[in-house]
Amino acid sequence: MSVERVRPVFLALLTVLALFATVSCASQHKDVSKLGYPGSENVTSPPAKAYEPPRDRVDRPNSDPSPNDPGPVAGRDTPEPPEGEVLSRSNGIVVRRPPGDAPRTVKIPESQRPRQIPAPSREAPRAEYAPTGASLDIVQTLEAEGRFGRFLGLVRQAGLTQELLNEARMSLLAPSDKAFETVSNSMLQSWTTPPERLRKFVRAHFLYGQMDSAVLLDARNVRSVGGVNLSVEGQGTMTGIGSARVLKADLMAKNGVIHEIDRVIPPPSD
């Protein structure tokens, strides 16, 4: 048999085999997809894409188109609200009040409103003292007691009598006559001369204000008019001030308080 006669038969046989293989493969593929074997879902038709309504662009300041602008992004951009009052602007997003939605006024009850606290006054507080009930001033009280002659003489010598009388309220640490017996004449002389030093010595016993024993105990430390720092001792009752012991506290005068002490208070060192 020649080659020319065999070739058509051979080509026809190949064609029949190819058709048979195609039909067999399609049949097997259909059976596998019905059984739900793993991988069979990969050959099914993809589901139809859900319809998404078109989204409008929101108002943005300076919203000129930019080649780098990706457009609306889900979760970031929101549709433009209807025209109306602008409620807020944040990150380029404008929120407007819908038309016809009038602003609502909420009335807060008076009991729930924040309390208005008045601003503090800039005026300095004024000291107010209760009347002492005494009819004599400090100088008259010292004279009436009769045991402060030496100290009262130094007050007059220093020219400070009017200072005790002119002040609205004064407190005095008055050394008794016996207190001067604890100081030598030479020491007292050094404290009382010249006149300027005498004034410092006398003012070391002056306190501004009506300072009774309760006030002094509460303060614990005070500074005299003469510039001497004094510590106050005692629990409930004042027993000492500076280096002196308190013999009698709270001798009331109409313009201040007198505390009798057993030692003189030295003037501040120069």
Quick summary:
This protein is an alpha+beta fold. The chain has helices at residues 3-35, 138-145, 149-157, 161-166, 185-192, 195-203, 213-219, and strands at 86-90, 93-96, 170-175, 206-208, 221-223, 229-234, 238-241, 244-253, 256-261.
Description:
Mean pLDDT is about 75; it is low at about 55-65 and about 120-130. With about 270 residues, the protein is α+β, with helices and mostly antiparallel strands. The protein has helices spanning about 5-35, 140-145, 150-155, 160-165, 185-190, 195-205, 215-220; strands spanning about 85-90, 95, 170-175, 205-210, 220-225, 230-235, 240, 245-255, 255-260. The protein is built from 7 helices and 9 strands; from the N terminus they run αββαααβααβαβββββ. The relative contact order is 0.10.
Provide tags for this entry.
two-stranded antiparallel sheet; FAS1 domain; 30% helix; seven-stranded mixed beta sheet; alpha+beta
Helical run tally:
7
Q: Would you tell me the overall average pLDDT?
A: 75
Cα-based radius of gyration, to the nearest Å: 54 Å
CATH class categorisation of one domain: Mainly Beta
Strand order of the largest sheet: 4-3-9-8-7-6-5
Q: Biggest sheet, open or closed, and with what strands and sense?
A: 7 strands, mixed
